[in-house]
Amino acid sequence: MRVLRMRIWVVSLVFGVCFLVAGSVEDKVSLVGSDFSQWRGDTAAWFVAGDSVLDPGNEKLLKGKAGSGVIINGPTGRTRNIISKAELGDVRAHVEFMVPKGSNSGVYFQGRYEIQVFDSWGVAEPQHSDCGGIYQRWSNNQGFEGRGSRVNASKAPGQWQTFDVIFRAPRFDKDGKKIAKARFEKVMHNGVLIHADVELTGPTRASTWNDEKALGPIMLQGDHGPVAYRNIWIEPAGPNPFFAMDTATKDAKHQSAKEQIEMVKELGYDGIGPHAGGGLAEMLNECQKNGLQLYAAYVGCNIGPDQKKYGPELTQAIETLAGTNSMLWLFVQSNKDKVSSPVGDERAVAVIREIADMAAKKGVRVALYPHTGFWVERVEDAVRVVKKVNRPNVGVTFNLCHWLKVDDEKNMKSLIKAAMPYLFVVSINGADSGGNDWKGLIQTLDKGTFDVGGFLKTLAVNGYTGPIGFQGYGIGGDAYDNLKRTMEAWRRLSEVMN
Fold first, then answer.
1. Of 4, 5, 416, 455, which residue is most buried, by most CB within 10 angstroms?
2. Which of 17-21, 152-156, 250-254, 256-260 has the least mean pLDDT?
């Protein structure tokens, strides 16, 4: 069995601050084999088997068959938790598990953040305590921030099941201050997408440690009931999730949601960011069928005193996206206030809080979308307003093309640092430095003179681990070819984020 190798980067920035970016495995590594050599200390009653089956005399117990490749937590299913020797940061993990009737376990990333393992066969509305749930946090004898799976993908007791997880570790500066939260980027249960882009404010209940670190082990819960595990492997997480905005996905050959989603999936994109119109439900349905995420839906609001605050497409988008952890990509306009003017802040705060509170009830986030010529035009405007709105589900977007249109490139590093605590999503594209029209400022990612790689590196060293979208407005031509060349460029450019 190969030895786990780790790497940690400390990157010095021009601001004179060093940021610790969590290490990751360099190779695919198996944690379950013929012994417990990959696990630390006393493994108590855990034993190695060749397979696991339901006990024919007791449907609430498991029995092991002779051989290797499976680990089981003892004959009664009540033994200690086990912790990997490997200390992990960002990882892609595959886990196979089996539980008997009524049993309970969990996989803790970094020993702190749990994906629940449970017999949830037949549960209609899964909660955080059901299989695949992100288990709740706990404080002052109360639970909070638990998240149930979007759908129940559980199999019957006694069947092998799978989790496929991309986990992003929290980031810290040189003084140990957390600058980016831990994140479950993607959780698949038996091949079904059940979570995407979920930030974690801290360790879940029953974690091994209550603090947070850049590195930590895998922990398997062994004291809550019988469970068997096999084929647990980890490998590098890869770069941030990359999706296509629908400005880049539609052409004469790709008009329907089905055609667009099948294309982006084939090309390796993680999802889409569409307009919030009448076709949003269909787009979401196609994403779900294909295991992709609908990251953000583009929709606007108005803050002028005599304007309608928002239209029915906004409230309908919230209903459609309920429970998906998607975002409203919210642009803000005013028929009274000058662009970027703080005079409109009070009215804007009231409108955005109203939208945010509606969205929060449905598990939807709101990312302000700076847009040239709109009241929220600059990233600075979005940050200013978000601070005043003061809602945890409200953040900002960094749109590369709009930033280049209205700001000075020399401000990039300081602006990203200022936006980072509130940064939900980023959009990029090829662009020309010094460009002043959209033809120069929005190109496929393989074109343009602007240093997109440097931009991505600045995001990474500031701790950004969230989604990045490709803006394709006005490029024209063949969507498949544009997206193919952009994906090839992304794979080269994004190496700076690994």
1. 455
2. 17-21
pLDDT in tens, 450-479: 999 999 999 999 999 999 999 999 999 999
Q: Do 365 and 327 meet the contact criterion of CB atoms below 8 Å apart?
A: yes
Domain limits, CATH 2.60.120.560, in the chain: 9-236
- Which pTM was predicted? 0.91
For β-strands 296-302 and 142-144, DSSP reports them as unpaired
Q: Which residue has the tokens 């068997």?
A: 228
Using left for φ > 0, alpha for ψ between -120 and 50, and beta otherwise, residue 132 falls in left
Of 434, 437, 431, 436, give the one whose Cα is nearest residue 486: 431
pLDDT tens readout for residues 264-296: 999 999 999 999 988 999 999 999 999 999 999
Contacts of 151 (CB under 8 A, 6+ apart): 126, 192, 194
Contact between residue 329 and residue 273 where contact means Cβ atoms under 8 Å apart: yes
User: Is 9-236 CATH 2.60.120.560?
Assistant: yes
For residue 225, give both structure tokens.
């009931």
